[in-house]
Amino acid sequence: MILDLDIGNTLSKWRLKDADSSEIRSRGAVWTREEWKPGSDIPDLDVVEAVRISSVAREAVLEQTVELLHSRVRGVHVARSTPEALGVVNGYEEPHRLGVDRWMGVLAGYQLAGGCCAVDCGSAITVDFVLPGGRHLGGYIIPGLRLMKESLKLGTRNVAIDPDSEAEELLLPGQRTVEAVNHGIYMAAVSAINRIYSEVCDREGVALPMLLTGGDARVVSRGMQSPHAVWPDMVYGGLEACFPLTAAERGGRMSGAPRVPQPAGLEKIRAGLAFSMLL
């Protein structure tokens, strides 16, 4: 079995993958913290032969996790942000400072689409661009939905956005405080992503497919004006591409990869951007 770990600032997500069939056997998530307990927090390591890790937690958390795993597992692979990988050139002036989850998303998106806009809707919302040919432009970071709620001193309890809500409903003025908060932060998030996407495509002269991942991807996707796909395992896809351990992975297949969305034409993107600038 292969254990994939995506250690975030808030949640640490894991999945167990069959090394022979490449099938996902189980998955889960726990709160990121100092000490992990195999068998309760993550699967029993007796069945694991290799681990792949993407971590944006404090270095001490990663070091302790790797130390624990090395004592139990034969192969431990830790992803790092590098100047270049898999045909993509990192757009950061200091490549190691790019969050490794963003780097994994960019690499997965490039392997799938040959250029894309990768949006991760987590504690923060990150928007990264990689052009056909592999030039990563860098990206944008804006507060995530929950972080925006916390900034209003309302916390997150009882103000969660229903991921099945219709975008039209979420864009209407709220008639209760809970609705006003939810609709306001939703409008802020989707408006920012839509504008960022249009501005960059216009400036670079290319229409890119958009791929969304992260805990709030489903609800954010409802407000996207451009064709897009939700890929919950996009970070795991980057791990698979960087450390292919199964026959399917070595053949370039990433688990759960969606069909690449056909982007709108560049002229349509530019027309929409021009209209929005008039408002």
The CATH topology of the largest domain is given as: Nucleotidyltransferase, domain 5
Number of E-type strands: 12
CATH architecture classification of the largest domain: 2-Layer Sandwich
Radius of gyration: 19 Å
Write down the overall geometry. globular
Element-level helix/strand string: EEEEHEEEHEEEHHHEHEHHH
- Give me the secondary-structure category: alpha/beta
CATH level-4 homologous superfamily of the largest domain: ATPase, nucleotide binding domain
Main sheet attributes: strand count, strand direction, barrel closure: 5 strands, mixed
- Tell me the strand order in the biggest sheet: 3-2-1-4-5
Please state roughly what percent of the residues sit in beta strands, choosing from under 5%, 5-15%, 15-25%, 25-35%, 35-45% or over 45%: 15-25%
Distance between the termini: 54 Å
- Return the CATH class of the largest domain: Alpha Beta
The overall average pLDDT, rounded, is 89
Helix content: 25-40%
The number of helices is: 9
Uncertain segments: none
